[in-house]
Write a structure and sequence with these properties.
The chain is an alpha/beta fold. It has 23 helices and 15 strands. Strands 1-2-3-4-5-6-7-8 form an eight-stranded parallel sheet, with helices on both faces. A seven-stranded parallel sheet has the order 9-10-11-12-13-14-15. It is elongated and about 70 Å long.
Length: about 500
């Protein structure tokens, strides 16, 4: 098969972040079996389009795997159409624009001018469709054009809109870097056809393997998987490739992935039961069990969606009915500090229930502080039981509150759900400064290197395996751990032993 990554970049970034040199990008892509990389220069996006585009062209001349993507900044107000004409003639495989980063709007005349210029020169046009309304506005602004358009990285919250837009306009593709939910590829193929999907990784900001895992782990036919991995985008850029003088012949054997997959038995400490309003299969118990079997996961610990986003009493009860008596699905008792008396009753009701092995709190939905007075009072009710307390953490501020909570209850195991997301560096400090905190890495923000950096700094015994099963397909987060190149001992600890000991499984 041939894998073409349609969503990558290289170059110096003033705000820092993951290493982003051309050499690092290529090393990461090669390690995951990617044959060719459509990449733009950060210089073209952030400083000067022509100079950055020349850097991308030079990179393509020096490295066979690089397929140059151009950029323009229409805030100049003039002459950006000339640059579009120039890069089209030189054989750049696409033009990418950044209204969200540069501060201009898709619903402006600037975008219309760009779209018209790309259409005139037959140049594929690419842009992120990560915010509500973007894909629909792109559709309105380009309905008179016929050149290919690629909508990049729509997350599950806006994916329904992006697929609807792609279905309404011929030659509109959707990149799959944020295809995360169970059954998403099957649903997308039904809505727009597999021919209108294209693999993208968002490297170097994101890991590469999760997005590949999702395609290879889907129920699409091998033929359709090959289309998504490379054939579709190759058809879009073929005309420009001829101008560039490149022939794409490199392929990869799927064994690169199957050989690198981790074997079970695996314990997943972060899952959900219940529906979400996104393009996905309903995550009932059967839906959770199916990917568990495919990825070697023998036990998953769940909270109920209803308990998190709506009524925690009803949600806990539904979870109890769904998992009662099973030896593969276990539960978290969800509490809500806004309702302390009801939360105490829920704790009293389920603390001795054999299927419930932990407690869960989601400060994002409840808006209750992790270390607020009501949370502390509730935590005191179960701290002596030493049942693991999974807390949704997103960002450095919430991670810091976990540190303070851990100081209040030094014998209570506290799990930083999602590993703090973009606060994962601060989470490392919490792990190092406490003895009762743990982390796991399920989230859609999959910056490369964070699993390995955490293990190297804090040890493997404080790291757990979590996938957000039910909301996410485990294939996605499995790829995050696989890219960390865990040693056999680290695999044993992180994928099973740490959780088995912590939860008494």
């Amino acid at each position: 098969m041939q894998i073409i990554d349609c969503d990558a970049c290289f170059g110096f970034r003033v705000a820092g972040g993951p290493e982003s040199s051309i050499e690092t990008l290529l090393a990461a892509e090669r390690a995951q079996g990617v044959s060719y990389v459509m990449a733009y220069s950060m210089k073209a996006r952030a400083y000067d389009a022509r100079e950055g585009n020349d850097d991308a062209l030079q990179a393509a001349r020096e490295h066979d795997e690089i397929l140059p993507v151009a950029a323009v900044d229409p805030r100049l107000g003039y002459r950006f159409e000339d640059e579009i004409a120039r890069v089209a003639k030189l054989g750049f495989v696409a033009l990418r624009v950044f209204p969200d980063v540069q501060g201009w709007a898709v619903d402006s005349g600037l975008f219309t001018s760009i779209a018209d210029a790309c259409n005139t020169h037959g140049l594929p046009l690419m842009l992120a469709a990560k915010t509500a309304g973007t894909a629909s506005e792109v559709l309105r602004r380009t309905e008179h054009t016929s050149n290919p358009i690629v909508l990049l990285g729509p997350g599950y919250g806006v994916l329904g809109e992006a697929l609807t837009a792609a279905a309404a306009r011929q030659d509109t593709l959707v990149s799959t870097s944020q295809f995360i939910t169970p059954g998403v590829f099957e649903i997308a193929a039904e809505m727009v056809g597999a021919r209108n999907l294209a693999f993208g990784s968002a490297s170097p900001d994101s890991c590469i393997r999760p997005a590949v895992n999702m395609i290879l782990g889907s129920e699409l036919s091998k033929q359709d998987q090959a289309k998504v991995l490379g054939d579709n985008i190759r058809g879009v850029i073929d005309t420009q490739l001829a101008k560039l003088g490149k022939t794409l012949s490199k392929t990869v054997d799927e064994a690169v992935y199957t050989a690198g997959r981790y074997a079970g038995p695996i314990i997943d400490v972060h899952g959900h039961l219940g529906p979400w309003p996104f393009p996905m299969r309903n995550p009932d118990a059967a839906c959770v069990r199916d990917p568990m079997a495919r990825w070697g996961i023998t036990k998953t610990i769940l909270s109920h969606t209803k308990a998190i986003v709506n009524d925690f009493v009803e949600g806990n009860a539904e979870l109890a009915r769904a998992i009662g008596g099973s030896d593969d699905l276990y539960g978290y008792i969800t509490i809500n500090p806004n309702y302390p008396d009801l939360s105490v009753r829920e704790l009293d009701r389920y603390l001795d229930h054999p299927s419930f092995v932990g407690v869960k709190m989601h400060p994002g939905y409840t808006t209750a502080s992790i270390d607020g007075p009501e949370t502390l009072k509730l935590t005191a009710r179960f701290a002596s039981r030493r049942l693991p307390f999974l807390v949704h953490t997103w960002g450095p501020a919430e991670v810091a509150k976990i540190g303070r909570l851990a100081e209040h209850f030094p014998d209570l195991p506290i799990i930083m759900g999602h590993g703090g997301a973009n606060g994962w560096r601060e989470a490392i400090d919490v792990l190092k400064n406490t003895r009762n905190t743990y982390t796991e890495f399920c989230n859609s923000s999959i910056e490369p290197g964070k699993v390995r950096a955490t293990i190297d700094a804090a040890g493997a015994d404080r790291v757990l395996f979590g996938t957000d099963a039910g909301l996410f397909d485990p294939a996605f987060c499995m790829g995050v751990y696989e890219e960390a190149n865990l040693t056999p001992d680290e695999q044993q600890a992180i994928l099973r032993d740490n959780a088995a000991k912590l939860f008494g499984l």
